Amino acid sequence: MPSAGHSHWMITVKKYAYLLVVIPPALLLLSQWLWQHFGYPDLFAFLVLGFVFGLIPLLDHLVGQDPVNPDEQQEVPRLSEEKFYRVLTLLCLPMQLATIVWAGHVFMTTEMSWVGQLGWLLSVGTVGGIVAINVGHELIHKDPRLEQWAGGALLASVCYAGFKVEHVRGHHVHVSTPEDASSSRYGQSLYAFLPQAYLHNFLNAWKLEAKRLQHKGFSAVSWRNELLWWYGLSLLMTAGCGLLWGWMGVLYFVAQSFFAFSLLEVINYVEHYGLHRRKLESGRYERPDIQHSWNSNFLLTNLFLFQLQRHSDHHAYPKRRYQVLRHHDESPQLPSGYAAMVVLALIPPLWFKVMNPRVEGYYQGEEHQLASA
Known about the structure:
Layout: H1 4-17, H2 23-38, H3 41-44, H4 47-63, H5 75-81, H6 83-109, H7 114-140, H8 145-156, H9 162-174, H10 190-215, H11 226-245, H12 247-272, H13 299-304, H14 311-316, H15 338-345, H16 348-362
């Protein structure tokens, strides 16, 4: 165990290391600078992808695991109240909006083949997955209205505002049960998972919001339906891109959104693969806890993702702020960080070879549970 002094030092380092979130958008700027000076725009358009899914997995294993958990009695209350952490996530909203506009301008004004255009859209979508969806996920779990609105606006910037409703009121209630389409099953490939995840996220968000309004005596088709506002904001952003750049602007905005929310659903696939909550004698499922999500404690990716990889603690305590999420050795552990696991998930035979033995090992002695996973 690290000493108290080492723990305090690491927490201070991590506080400012969360500023690494600016690197993915900055890499888009670097991409443009490189092709302006050296040419090869079709190659440098993929720079963000190479960094996130190529270099980061290697650095994860070189940097290693995060050795520090904040102390529950002293550090967690103090860190939870520090404004720096909240301000940093809120500033991601203007950064994301600026990135979309600037990257759209580059997309329209740079001569690239379809390969380069695809690389640019994938890169912008990856930035959206990190900045818009990951930070939006952090904010929608918080109570202050400003954070709720900022989280909704971030998700609207990638056309996935239904996640704001479905994730909190649906996924966190039904996680790791057959009722949750965002929890992947044992033996299910990513490509079988994605279509149902897309559809479920959209439809269940509307069902949950309609149910909330009906309980209050209001119609689902009213100004009180928050989904109408968030999807309206997405439509407004799409129209803005259309006014700026015509139909190609609309294509750009929709495509970067698709790649961003697809990255979210790939990570959903990774986070809960093969795990499930047991059904009690009462017919209810056991409470979500630290054994119902895959955990990853690789320091570098956790800094980029505001500790999203400490996902087991997040599901056990959804209101916890990112800076105080804790690692649990007893949670099921991924063999690498999310960046590497996303690449692995894209290749089902490799995914099954790596992950199925881990799921089976986790349920060793009660293999009958795998039939319910």
